Amino acid sequence: MLTLAILIPMLGALALMLLPTLGRDAARLVAIGTSTLSFVLLLIVWAQFDSGAGAPAFQAVAEAAWIPSLGVAWRVGVDGMSLALSLMSGVLFIACIAWPMENPERPRAYYAWFLFLESVSLGLFLVLDLLIFYVFFDLSLVGMFFLIGRWGHGEAERAALKFFIYTLAGSLAILLAIIGLVLSVDPITFDMRALIAAQPLAGMDLRGGLVLLGFVVGFAVKAPLFPVHTWLPPAHVMAPGPVSAILAGVLLKMGTYGLVRIPFQMMREAFAAHALPLAIVALASILWGAIVALGQTNLKRRIAYTSVNHMGYTVMGIAAAGAMLTGAEGARELALTGAVVEMVAHGLITGALFLIAGGFWARSETYDLDAFGGLAKVAPRLTVAAVIASFASLGLPGLAGFVAEVQIFVGTFAVFPWIAAIGLLGILITAALFLRMLQQLFFGDLPKAREGFPDISLREGVVLAALLALVVLIGIYPRWLLDMIGSATSAMIGG
Amino acid sequence: MPIGDVSPEITIILAAVLALLFAAFAPRRMQAGSALIALVGIGISSVLLLAQLGETRFTFSGTWALDGASLWARLMILIATAFCILLSPGWFRTDPRHGEYYTILLLAALGAMAMAGAGDLLQLVIAVLLSSVTGYTLAAWHRDWALSVEAGMKYFLMGALANALLITGVTLMLGLLGSSGYADIASNLSLGMGLSPLLFVGFALTIVGVAFKLGAVPAHAWMPDVAEGAPVPSAAFLTVVPKIGAAIALARLVQLVPPEVLGLRPLMAVLAVATMTLGNLAALWQDDLRRLLGWSSVAQAGYLLMAITVLGLSADALTALLTFVASYAIGNLAAFAVVAHLRGRTAIADYAGLAKRRPVAATALVLSLLSLVGIPPTVGFLGKLTLFVTTIDGGYTWLAVVAAANTVASLFYYARVMGEVYFGTPTDDVAVLGRISGFAVWIAAIAVIAGAVLAGTAIAAFDLSRVLPI
Fold first, then answer.
1. Residue, of B173 and A455, whose pLDDT is higher
2. Measured between CB atoms, does B190 come within 8 Å of chain A?
3. Fewer beta carbons within 10 angstroms: which end of chain A, N or C?
4. DSSP-derived 3-state class of residue B424
C-alpha cells in the first residue's frame, strides 16, 4: 500500500514526460489525479492505523530485497509521526499542483517534476531503510534544483546551484554518519527498526559524538538552522510560489524528521549527552530567524526567515525531549509531540503563506512590501486568507501553530527553563513582524498602481480555503492529530 | 602450456589481425566492417572469459593471474571497448582507412586486459607498454588536426617518462626481492625479506608508472588534453579502459605488501587525496566539456585509489573497487557517448538549452553527470557508497571525509553543465552523428539507471572475488 503511494506519483511523472501531446490543463489534471490517488492510499493506511497502547511501532510494513550483502532492502512502514507528515505532504502537494503556474512554460515538465518530488518526499517519510532514506533525501535535491532553476525568476539558476551544493554538502555529512552508524552493527544492516533496537553506538563516546555531529550538521542544513541557513532566502525568493511552498512545507521537514528518526531514536545516549548545545543552536535560530525576518522589506524573504524561526522551535522541542534517558517523561513527551505537530502545522501554514506570496508576484512581479498598501479594499478574500495564515504562524490560540508551540514551550520549560524563556522572545518578535506585514500590505493607502489588483480566483480560493480549514481544525480540535502523533512519541520517549 | 587459460586474449589478437586484414582489402565504403569483426571477437572472448568464472590461481609459471578481480575487470574492459566501437563508425565516416582503428582499439584493450591479469613484474611492464603504445596512436588519430596531435604528443611524452620510471622501479624490486613473480614476492615480503627504504622507492616508482595509466597524480597531466583533443571514441576509451586494467594492476601491487610494513597504504591515501583534489579544482572553471570530463576523470581516479588504500584492511575493499570502477565506466562512457553523438560538441556554452532540442541526449548527459557525482538513483551512487563504506571500515575515515568534501566541490562544475543543458536558451539546431551513436546513448542512459537496480547481484558476485596473491 505504502509502496504504491510512493510509486504512483513516480509513474505519473513518467507518463507526463512520455506523453508529448498533453496540453497544460490535461497535464494538470493528470498530476492532480495521481497525487490524489496516492493521498487516498495514505488515507486508507490511516484508517487501518492502530494508535492504541499495545500496537506495533511500525505498521503497514512491507519489504523486498535489494542488496542483501550490505543489508539494504526496500522497507516501508509508518508510525504516528511519519503518517502525520506524509499525510500533510500529500495535502500540500495536491494544493501546490492545483495552484496556477506562475510562469506557464513547459507545463508537462513542470507537473512531472512536481510528481517526482512528491514521490520522493513521501518515500523519504515512509521508508524504514536508512540507505533508501538517503537516496530519497538526495533525490529531493535534484527535483528541487530543476524546479527552481527552470521555473524560477531573477537569478534562479544561481539560487538553485547554491541550494544544490549547500544541501549536498549536508547530505554527504549524513551519508558518512550513516556509514559510521551501520558499520558498528554486525552483520551490517540499514534496517531502521533493527538499528533503533540495537542502539549501535551506545558507550562509544568519541565515535558516537562524531556520528552525531555528522547527522546534526546534515539535518541542520536541510532544516535549516542558524548558521547554515543562508541557502534558504535566495532559493525561496527566486522560486515560484508553489515550489517555495513545497520547499518550506515538505523539504524542510525532512531535516527535522531525520533528526528525530535517526540520531534521536538510534543513538539516544549520544543525543542526550549533546542535547544542550543543540538546544542552544535552536535558540539561536529562533532569535536570528525572527530578528532578521523583522528587518526584511521583501515579502518572501520575510516569510522565509520565519521558517528558520519555526524550525528553531521544532528543534528546541526535539532537543528537550532527547535531553535525558529517564525522568521527566511527561514533559519530554509533550515537547516531542509539540515538535511533530509544529512540523505539520508549519507545513500547512507556511505552505499557504508562500502560495499567497506567489499570488502577489503573479499579479505585480514584485515582493517589495513598500509597493503595496490598502489591498483590503480591492482584495478582501485575499486579505482574509493572509490574515488567518499570518495569525496561525504567529501562534494565535485556536489555530494550529498555537497547539504546537504551547506544547513545545511547556515541555522545554521542564528541561531547559532558561532556553525556553529566552525563546519566548521569538514569539513576540514574530507577532510584531506579521502584524506589521499585514498592516503594510492590506491597510493604509492604496497605491495608484494597485487599483486594479485582482482578488484571488476561485481555484486559488479553494486551495487556500482547504489548507486554512485544516489549520483551523487542528487549532480547535487537535485530538485526532495528537492521538496519532502521540502514539509514536510516547513509544519513543518510553522506549 | 595451458593455452586455454589465455584463450580470451588470443581471441582478441585474432580478431585484431582479422580486422586489419579486412581493412587492408576492403573498399573504402566497407571499412566499418572491421567494427563488426571486432565486435564478434569481443563477444567470443567474453564467452571464453566467463568460462574462467570461479578460478583463483596463477598460471603460465606464475606470470598470469586468474582470479575474480582480473575476470571482472577484463569483462568490463571488453564491454567498454565494445561500447566505444559503437561510437566509432559514425565518427570516422569520412576517414577512408579507419578499419585499422579497430585493430589498434583491440590491441589497446588487450594491453589493459594484460595489466589486469599480470602476475609478474615483467608481464606488468609489457602490458603497460602495449597499452601505452596503442594509446598514443588512438589519441593522435586525426593526424591533420593540431589538438589531436598535441594530445597524442603530450600523452607520449608523459608516457615515455612514466614508463622509464616504471622500469626503474621494477628493476629495483627485482634486485631487492630476487624474483619478479608476485607469488614469490609476496612470500618473501611476508618473511620480511628485502625491506628497506630502497624497496619503498622501487614500489613508489612502479606505482607512478601504473598511476600514469590510471590518470592519477603525479602522472595525470595527459588526461585533460587527451579528453579534449583525441577523437571522442578514443577519448571515451582512453579515459576508461586503461584505467580499469591499471586499477587491478595497482591493487595487485599493493596486495603484495602486508599493511603493517613499508607504508604503502598511507602513500596511496596521499595520492588519492592529491588526485581527487587536483582533478576537482582544475575542473571547476573549465568552459570546455571534454576538458572538464578529462579533469573529472582524474578526480575519479582519486576516489578509486581509496579502495586500494584500504586493501587488506577492510574485507570489502575489492568489492568496492570493482563496483566503483564499473560505475565510473558506465557514467563516463555515457557522458562521452552523448558528446560523440552530438558530433563532439565541446564548449559548455554550446550545450545551452539542449533539453529542448535533444531531450534524450540531454537526459542521458544529466544522468551520466549525476552518476559521476554519485547521486542516487544512478549507478555512481552505489560506487561511491561502497567506496565510503569500505574506507571507513578500513580505518581511513578522514579520507572518506575528504572525498565527501571533494564530491561537494565536484557538484559545482557538473551542475553548471546540467544548468546550461536545462535552463539555457538554445541558439540553433543541434546536429547529431547517426543512428548507431543514438542507440549507444540510449544504452548508456539505461545502464546508468539499471546498473543501480541490479547492483545487488553485481555486488554479490564481486564479493566472491579474490585478488591474487592472497
1. B173
2. no
3. C
4. coil
